[in-house]
Design brief:
The protein has a domain of 68 residues. Helices cover 75% and strands 0% of the residues. The protein has five helices and no strands. It is globular, with a radius of gyration of 18 Å. The termini are far apart.
Length: 166
């Protein structure tokens, strides 16, 4: 039981990290790069909702019940992701302070997974489990395509290169 819970938590954390990375990468893309318009959060959210609605074959009532919970969950996770990002930017040469930052980061990651778990319990009360599973698969596919599209925008095929800090 313990190893199953650990495995689930690891998968949740990996999934959350991937989703946050995908959104952050796309959101930070240079404006008008290769003729692409600047990132529009509302357009992106609508694109996600359309993709998930289609994949899960939601009825309009299911979509109305699902997306407020889903978007609330993602907003909370995004905020925690921002906190993690800020913590990672802290330059600590002191081992004790660095350990505190690392512990805060991992606590936030666990909290993100717990938020997702609690919201999915609520979502399962308004949408059938089969459709929730379809949403989970569609999220993975959608974000994989987003990362691939980001890579395809760059001539070297590696995506946007991180800024070098000196």
């Amino acid at each position: 039981m313990q190893s199953t819970t650990t495995t689930i938590m690891k998968k949740l954390l990996l999934s959350l990290s991937f989703i946050i990375f995908s959104i952050a990468t796309w959101a930070q893309a240079p404006q008008q790069h290769n003729g692409q318009p600047p990132f529009d959060p509302q357009k992106f959210q609508q694109m996600v909702e359309n993709e998930l609605t289609k994949a899960a074959d939601f009825t309009s009532d299911e979509a109305k019940a699902f997306f407020p919970l889903y978007n609330e969950m993602r907003n909370k996770q995004r905020e925690m992701g921002r906190q993690i990002h800020q913590l990672k930017k802290q330059a600590n040469t002191d081992s004790k302070k660095s350990a505190e930052v690392v512990n805060k980061i991992y606590s936030l990651k666990v909290e993100m997974a717990q938020v997702e778990q609690s919201y999915y319990k609520r979502i399962l009360k308004v949408v059938p489990a089969e459709k929730v599973l379809k949403v989970m698969r569609a999220e993975d596919d959608f974000h994989r395509r987003m990362v691939q599209n980001q890579r395809d925008r760059h001539p070297d095929g590696k995506g946007r290169q991180p800024k070098k800090h000196h």
